C-alpha cells in the first residue's frame, strides 16, 4: 500500500463540552471538557487510522497545548513528526446546547510560523519517500501566504509525492492553478467560485468539475453536495453517491473523515467509484457522533455496505 502522510500548518487542541442552555452575561455551567486533536491534516490522519490504515501526521507544536495535542495523538496510535515552534498551539472550543441541539464552534487564530519554522516544515516534506501520498489540509496560519503554500506544494511534487489539497478560498485556487493535484474536495459553492460562474443545475456541477480535470488542475475532483452526497469525476468517469439515511448529530469532522477514507482507498489503488463510496460512508458515519468525534470503522463499514448494495457501477 502507498504510504500516507498529512501536513497541518495550523493544528489545534480541541475541547468539547455541553450546556443545558445558552444566554448572555450569566455563568454558563459546562460539563467537563473532552479534549481531542484538531486541524485538517491531523484529523485526516486520525480517520485513516480509525479505518484500519496507517498515516504519518506532520505538524508544528508549541507550548503546553502543543504537547497535549501530541500526547493525544500518541495515545490514538497516530505516528507524528512534529516541529517545536515559539508560538503556542491554539485551543478551540465546541459547545453543544442541550435544549436546542445547536452547536457553537469557537475557533481561535492559528499560531504563527516564522520563516525559519516554515522552511523546517518544508524540509520534513522533502524527506517523505517518493510516490507517497501527502494530504495538505486545513487553514493557513496568520502571515503564511499562499505563495509559501505553493512553494511547499511544488517541492512536494518535485519529490514525486501525490498531493491532495483540502482547503478553501485563495489557498485552494492557487493550488489548482499550480495543477497536478491527485484529488481535491470542494463543495458546490467553492467550485462555483473557482470556475467563476453559477452552478444551478446538476449538469453544471459535473461540467465544472470536469473542466478542472481537463485543464490539469487535479486528476480527481470530488464535489461535496451536503445531503445529496458527492459527485466525483476523473478523466474517464463521473459518479454521484447519495448518502444513506442517518440521524445527524453533528457535521463536525465529516469532511475530514471523508478525505481520510478517500485517501485510504486511493492508497489501496481503488478506482474512483470505490473511493467516493467509502468517502461518503465515512463522512456520514462522522455525523452520527456529537462534538468533534470522527468516523468509526464499524459505522463506516455498515454504511459503506449499504451504499454498495444501493448503487450501480458507472458505465462511463
Automatic annotation (TrEMBL):
PROSITE patterns in alphabetical order: PFKB_KINASES_1 (PS00583), PFKB_KINASES_2 (PS00584)
Organism classification: Bacteria, Pseudomonadati, Pseudomonadota, Gammaproteobacteria, Enterobacterales
InterPro entries (UniProt xref): Carboh/pur_kinase_PfkB_CS (IPR002173), PfkB_dom (IPR011611), Ribokinase-like (IPR029056), Tagatose/fructose_Pkinase (IPR017583)
Domain of life per record: Bacteria
Family: Belongs to the carbohydrate kinase PfkB family.
Official protein name in the record: Phosphofructokinase
Gene label: pfkB
Residue ranges occupied by any Carbohydrate kinase PfkB domain in the UniProt entry: 22-296
Keywords assigned: ATP-binding, Kinase, Nucleotide-binding, Transferase
Amino acid at each position: 500500500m502507498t504510504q500516507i502522510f498529512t501536513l497541518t500548518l495550523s493544528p489545534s487542541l480541541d475541547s468539547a463540552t455541553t450546556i443545558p442552555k445558552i444566554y448572555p452575561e450569566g455563568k454558563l455551567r459546562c460539563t467537563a471538557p473532552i479534549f481531542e486533536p484538531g486541524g485538517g491534516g491531523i484529523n485526516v490522519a486520525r480517520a485513516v487510522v480509525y479505518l484500519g490504515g496507517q498515516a504519518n501526521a506532520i505538524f508544528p507544536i508549541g507550548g503546553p497545548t502543543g504537547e497535549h495535542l501530541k500526547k493525544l495523538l500518541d495515545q490514538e496510535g497516530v505516528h507524528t513528526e512534529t516541529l517545536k515552534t515559539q508560538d503556542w498551539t491554539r485551543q478551540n472550543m465546541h459547545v453543544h446546547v442541550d435544549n436546542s441541539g445547536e452547536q457553537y464552534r469557537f475557533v481561535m487564530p492559528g499560531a504563527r510560523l516564522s520563516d525559519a519554522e516554515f522552511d523546517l516544515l518544508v524540509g520534513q516534506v522533502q524527506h517523505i519517500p517518493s510516490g507517497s501520498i501527502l494530504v495538505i489540509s486545513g487553514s493557513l496560519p496568520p502571515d503564511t501566504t499562499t505563495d509559501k503554500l505553493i512553494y511547499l506544494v511544488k517541492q512536494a511534487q518535485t519529490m514525486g509525492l501525490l498531493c491532495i489539497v483540502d482547503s478553501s478560498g485563495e489557498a485552494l485556487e492557487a493550488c489548482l492553478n499550480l495543477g497536478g493535484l491527485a484529488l481535491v474536495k470542494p463543495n458546490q459553492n467553492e467550485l462555483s467560485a473557482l470556475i467563476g460562474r453559477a452552478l444551478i443545475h446538476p449538469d453544471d456541477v459535473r461540467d465544472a468539475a470536469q473542466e478542472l480535470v481537463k485543464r490539469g488542475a487535479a486528476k480527481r475532483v470530488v464535489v461535496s453536495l451536503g445531503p445529496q452526497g458527492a459527485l466525483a469525476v476523473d478523466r474517464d468517469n463521473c459518479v454521484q453517491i447519495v448518502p444513506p439515511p442517518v440521524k445527524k448529530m453533528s457535521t463536525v469532522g465529516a469532511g475530514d473523515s471523508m478525505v481520510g477514507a478517500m485517501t485510504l482507498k486511493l492508497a489501496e489503488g481503488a478506482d474512483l467509484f470505490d473511493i467516493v463510496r467509502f468517502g461518503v460512508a465515512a463522512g456520514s458515519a462522522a455525523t452520527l457522533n456529537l462534538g468533534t468525534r470522527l468516523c468509526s470503522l464499524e459505522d463506516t463499514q455498515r454504511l459503506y455496505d449499504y451504499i454498495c448494495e444501493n448503487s450501480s457501477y458507472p458505465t462511463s
